[in-house]
Amino acid sequence: MRLFRLLALAVVGTVLAQDTFDDRQVDSDDSFDVTRGSDRHNKTRTGPHPNASSEPTILKCIEIRELTRLINIANNATRLNRTTHGDATKAAAIKAEASKAAPTLNDLKGNSTLVASCQQFFAHEDMVERCVRMHYYERLEKLAANATLLDHKFHGDAARISAVKAEATADASKLSRLSSNATLTQFCAARRDHARCLELEKLQKEVDKAQNATSTRGGAGADKTHKGQAEASSAAARLDALKSNTTLVNYCNSHRE
Ligand SMILES: *[C@@H]1O[C@H](CO)[C@@H](O)[C@H](O)[C@H]1NC(C)=O
Ligand SMILES: *[C@@H]1O[C@H](CO)[C@@H](O)[C@H](O)[C@H]1NC(C)=O
Ligand SMILES: *[C@@H]1O[C@H](CO)[C@@H](O)[C@H](O)[C@H]1NC(C)=O
Ligand SMILES: *[C@@H]1O[C@H](CO)[C@@H](O)[C@H](O)[C@H]1NC(C)=O
Ligand SMILES: *[C@@H]1O[C@H](CO)[C@@H](O)[C@H](O)[C@H]1NC(C)=O
Ligand SMILES: *[C@@H]1O[C@H](CO)[C@@H](O)[C@H](O)[C@H]1NC(C)=O
Ligand SMILES: *[C@@H]1O[C@H](CO)[C@@H](O)[C@H](O)[C@H]1NC(C)=O
Ligand SMILES: *[C@@H]1O[C@H](CO)[C@@H](O)[C@H](O)[C@H]1NC(C)=O
Ligand SMILES: *[C@@H]1O[C@H](CO)[C@@H](O)[C@H](O)[C@H]1NC(C)=O
Fold it and tell me: May I ask which residue range the UniProt record assigns to the signal sequence (predicted)?
């Protein structure tokens, strides 16, 4: 479980990255920053930790993925051309970077413990990314089916409304593919519950703090600004809403660390 907590942290910011370990291309556009690639590569060579084995596992996994991606792009003329928009100089630079990266990647992949951990990491990241996509398609579908909400959101702009409806229709099969996978939906539900428990805890602290400040002598320390009071009362309302769900409260109580 510890690994997974670390993984959850690393996932932030890379959630929408489309590449997976074996560099399967989903809808990716091969946007690859040559400069960043070189910097990264330089850093592994000359940075404060010249020996890659001293880096945390997750950073090494991310490096494996980026180096794999770099090398795969360099070795595929179509992708290389697309990435560089046909610029031969840039293409040559990527190829040079890729050949420098190859031995580093080989070293990393020579560690079977690392490779196994990274496979776990990438599988987890891949699921998180699919949760995010599924949630997006779900919201889109709900929006497209709600004429009142559509009208309100797009101020009656018929063109934009029909564009949203068309997008929802186009994405319907993607949604059903994702939501028919029980492993995935269970994973996403557990993630969502966990996030709600964290939110509940945070709100409870906020509300306690605000009440505490109000109840001290003369209310010293209470945030009496309009904004502060509005925030405190919206936190309290959200907290009440969460706490009114006993399933959630029970779940949080039984999963407290
Ligand atoms: C990488 O490091 C080499 C040697 O230190 C340096 O000459 C080169 O300019 C660096 N490349 C980048 C992109 O920083
Ligand atoms: C560097 O990494 C290698 C394995 O790749 C290891 O055998 C060696 O002990 C490490 N050296 C240091 C100084 O950490
Ligand atoms: C292999 O990778 C694991 C996980 O990152 C690491 O703990 C271990 O030190 C590595 N072994 C070598 C020989 O580099
Ligand atoms: C090269 O990339 C293109 C576009 O991503 C892909 O369709 C093709 O299968 C790749 N070719 C090889 C040999 O991997
Ligand atoms: C490479 O990309 C450029 C611009 O994106 C395009 O005009 C050209 O036809 C491509 N060449 C090949 C061989 O795909
Ligand atoms: C449509 O959206 C409105 C505004 O958010 C909401 O009040 C209503 O319950 C929704 N209708 C349906 C059928 O979900
Ligand atoms: C369902 O999701 C799991 C977890 O990501 C995955 O391993 C599995 O291959 C998926 N099943 C199907 C039928 O896509
Ligand atoms: C409530 O106020 C007391 C005294 O100022 C303080 O010691 C305590 O930590 C506060 N509790 C919370 C939840 O902020
Ligand atoms: C209550 O919480 C559970 C667990 O998070 C969730 O599955 C359920 O949909 C929630 N019920 C309502 C009415 O929000």
Answer: 1-17
